[in-house]
Structure formats: structure tokens, C-alpha cells
Specification:
With 155 residues, this protein is of the alpha/beta class. It has 6 helices and 7 strands.
């Protein structure tokens, strides 16, 4: 809706889902191989995604984490473009967001890098600033399966 798109205090969450990593990782060694295999296994639409989740080939949880738990099962049947979020299930959400850009748009705090809670801090700041959060219900994104970076392995 135009009211959300034109608002300087609205944040639209793009739902993200993950493929079961071992199905991909055991069949690729390079990032490009993993990207190609991931893309071949991505669901094409919400109906395919729902099937993928039911068959446990897709999930909204990465590495048993709690950072992306904002999609409820009813999301698959929503007809409108957005769902207004009343609250988050926990404090450590790391959603991928769409924000209207202006000179006043909050940017990431560059002191938080790699696995330093940069997205958690960013969402916390938006919440403190009074942003309204909406969950996109007509589209979704998929995470690209890849092997752990050396930074993640060494932390």
C-alpha cells in the first residue's frame, strides 16, 4: 500500500527461507557450484515453498537459530500484500528489510561486523525509533547455501 511505501517509519520484512544445507553441501565444493545447486532447488512460488517446508527440504530456521522466526503457518494463505507485525517472537530477530530511503534513513552501525549482531542492533534501533514493521506476504527470498567462511569457522 502507498501509505507504507511512502512512510519514513515503516519497515517491510522480506521473509527468508533456507534449504536443508546438507542436501546441497555434500554435492558442491565451490561457491558457484553451491549457488547453482541452491538455485535448482529453490521453490518457485508460495505453494512450492509450502510443500518444500512440509517435506522438510526448506525451513525458516538456519542452524537451529532463532533469528528468522517471524513467519507463521497462516502466512501461506494470506491474500493481501502485507501483514502488520504486532510483535517479534524474540529480541534477536535479523530480518531482511526494505526501508524508504531519505537523508535521515538509519544506516548500519559499522562498528558491528561479521557476526557482531549488526542486524539485531539495527532492528533494535528501528524499534526504539518507533518504526512499524510489516511482513511481505506475496513474495519471499531464499538463502544461498554455502560452506562456512573461514571467519565463521575460526570464531
Amino acid at each position: 500500500p502507498e501509505s507504507v511505501l511512502s512512510s519514513s517509519s515503516s519497515a517491510v520484512i522480506i521473509p527468508i527461507f533456507f534449504l536443508s544445507p546438507m542436501r546441497i553441501l555434500r554435492n558442491c565444493t565451490t561457491l558457484m557450484q553451491c549457488a547453482k545447486l541452491s538455485e535448482e532447488n529453490f521453490p518457485a512460488n508460495k505453494a512450492d515453498l509450502e510443500t518444500c517446508v512440509r517435506r522438510r527440504r526448506c525451513t525458516q530456521i538456519k542452524d537451529k537459530g532463532i533469528q528468522h522466526r517471524y513467519v507463521r503457518y497462516s502466512w501461506y494463505n494470506v491474500k493481501g500484500p502485507l501483514i502488520k507485525m504486532k510483535c517479534f517472537p524474540n529480541r534477536f530477530q535479523e530480518p531482511y528489510l526494505l526501508l524508504r530511503y531519505s537523508p535521515d534513513t538509519l544506516l548500519f552501525d559499522e562498528r558491528f561486523i561479521n557476526y557482531g549482531c549488526n542486524k539485531v542492533q539495527f532492528v533494535d534501533q528501528l524499534r526504539l525509533m518507533g518504526y512499524d514493521f510489516y511482513l511481505l506476504s506475496t513474495s519471499f527470498s531464499m538463502d544461498l547455501v554455502h560452506h562456512d567462511s573461514s571467519y565463521r569457522r575460526d570464531r
